[in-house]
Every structure is written in structure tokens, then in C-alpha cells.
Amino acid sequence: MITILKDVAEELYSMFMGDIWLSMAVLIVVAGAALITELTPLDPLIGGAVLLVGCLLVVIASVRRSALKAR
Amino acid sequence: MMITSAETTAIGAAFLASIVEVVEAFTIVLVVATLRGWRPAILGTGAALMALTAIILLLGPVLDQIPIHVLQLSIGILLLLFGIGWLRKAALRAGGVMALHDEDAIFKKEAALLEAESKRHQKSLNWIGGITAFKAVLLEGLEVVFIVIAVSAGRGLLVPASLGAAAACILVLAVGAVLHRPLSKVPENTLKFGVGVMLSAFGVFWTGEGLGVEWPGADLALFGFAALFLAAGLSAAALAKRIKGAIA
What we know:
The complex is a heterodimer.
Chain A: H1 2-17, H2 20-39, H3 44-69
Chain B: H1 5-36, H2 38-64, H3 68-94, H4 103-120, H5 125-152, H6 158-179, H7 188-210, H8 221-247
Helix pairs in contact in B: 1-2, 1-4, 1-5, 1-6, 1-7, 2-5, 3-7, 3-8, 5-6, 7-8
């Protein structure tokens, strides 16, 4: 039973934090978008654009990083 | 009855993600059925499906009580972490940097593990088989449960998303029962790519809404986001292939 619970905990951790660099990058992008929407007088849509573009860049950067690391 | 973009994406994401996960779980259930018979395989699978259903039934209504903006933001961030993670792995596999899932190899590996485990515990072979099937279905099913809850919470889409997941289970089990061997022909990485794209699009949409962004076109923006993530994923896969080619 404990082994199963341990496996479940490991599975849940790997679902969201499987690659720490990727997770941190996503959280930084979200924080950036939140700063714009919550703390500046700018249109919230600009925060949304930062979120979208940031996440797209994270996809490409994380794949590039992993491909280079696999050398 | 009109089906909205959000419903289409929710059902589609739940269906495709379930196919991927059920194929993986089915391989291990088949190992148990082949080595120990169908009884422990079906009992283990049934117990795990009941546990997963209980999680959905418990969490779904609880999440509906949380203020919508808090729910959108927290689920949106989790979807981004999960969806971009899937997209990254799918792009790396498409680029040849990461090995593709090989269900036949997994079948052989799991069979050897179960045989070894059985030799150590002579008296409870069926019990070990049942537990193996239970763990496989529970662990693979957790991702499906998260996707079903995440794409449906706060929008009353729990039933359509669950039906999408259930339809995928029935399809894979029906094909698997006929073929009676691991489903190695399923284009798993393509499906993973698709699910990663959908979940990432959902993640941006929900996180943005949670932050107070009013997306142009409302739910229709999801399709635009999905197209952009698809382009980013394909570009990333091509980049990974180029880097690998330059090294080789």
C-alpha cells in the first residue's frame, strides 16, 4: 500500500515538475503576465499576449536546451 | 444543441489523452492476463477504474465551489506545466532526441519483471498480478483524471469530458481484446503532440482568464492558440532534429 502511494506521489510530481527548468520558465512567464495585468495600468490583453508569446518561446527554448544537453 | 469550442476541445483532449494512457496501461494489463490469466488482470483493472472514478466524482463537485477566477488561474497554471511538458517530450521524440515509446519492448520488460516477482512470492501469484494491473491503470489513469477535471472544472463539462475519456477506454480495450497483443501501431507520439498542443492552449486561455484577460473571440481564441502551439511544437521538433543532425 505504501509503495502504491509512493508511486502515486512520484507520478503526480513528475506530471507537473518533471523538468524543473521548464516548470520554472512557465512560472516566470505567468508571474510576468500577472505583474502586467495586476500592477500596471496597461490593458490586460497585453499581459495575455506576454503569457501566450512567453509560453510559445518556452516550448522552443526547452526543446532546444534538451537537444543540446543530449549531445 | 450547439457544441462550443470549449466543449470540443475538452472532449477532444480527454479522448486523445485517454487513448495514449490506456494504450500504455493496456500493455501491462495484457502482461498480467498472459502470465496469470484474465481474472487478476480484470480485478486489478476494475479496482483501479473505481478508484479513478471516485477521484473524479469527489474532486469535480468540490472544484465547482471554488471562485471561478481562482480556479481558472490555478488549473490554468497546472495545465501549462503539464501540457507544455507533454509538447516538449513529443517534440524531442519527433526530433529523434528522445526514444519513441515501444509497447512491444515494454511488454517484454514487464513480463520479465512479473515473472521475477512471481518467483520470489510463490504463494500469491494472482495477487501480485492483480496489484500490477491495479498500479498500471491507476498511475496511467491519474493523468487522464487530471485532464478530465482540468478541462471541465467550473464549466460544467465534467460529463462530456468523462464521456470522451470513457469512449477512448472502450475503443482501446475493444481493439486490444480483438488483437490480443500490445497496441504498438498506435501513433502514440502524434497523439501526445496533439494533446500537448490542446492542453497548452487551454492552459494559456484559462490562466489569462484567471488574470482578467478578455480574449478576443472568447472561446474561439482556443483554436488560434492551438494553431500557434502546433507551429511552435513543429518548429521545436525541426530544431531538435537539426541539432541532432549537426552532432551526428
